[in-house]
């Protein structure tokens, strides 16, 4: 017998709740310290219910890390690498990215876990790496555009893009405030200097 719309909605909400509490647990207690029992208790569901949605802890962790990439793709990649005004596009991109990273403290803790133990989480790391490389490629193309228009100094675009994403992650992990604050906006002009705008 097929599930009703209400049952489907309830299952979707339960899965989202599991992912939400699992994200927090994996971020605060690490992979080893997180158990399915802890997840079920935090989500206020039975131990067995978790297995309705995930085969094991490994699949749960992988989902917690990779599921957000779909949503992040929409916002992180929302800039035009061949914009007529690459300086304006860079400024808009930086502001958007700063605001996104300001709210990603818990999630970035998971990313760092995967990167730090990339051999243990090889499949998850591979997908994260592909996502990161696509972002670097698009940022690089915007940098090349600015260089071709003689608005940015000549430097290796991919290197600059790599430094840019590393800087965003570093700022988030080294900033204790939980939400966007005035200090985040104050970083924008300094980050812009990384791309080497030519002063006229």
From TrEMBL:
Residues 12-72 form the HTH tetR-type domain. SUPFAM superfamilies: Homeodomain-like. PROSITE patterns: HTH_TETR_1, HTH_TETR_2. One of its GO terms (molecular function) is DNA binding. Pfam families: TetR_N. Keywords: DNA-binding, Repressor. Residues 35-54 bind DNA. InterPro entries: DNA-bd_HTH_TetR-type_CS, Homeodomain-like_sf, HTH-type_Tx_Regulator, HTH_TetR. This is TetR/AcrR family transcriptional regulator. It comes from Filobacillus milosensis.
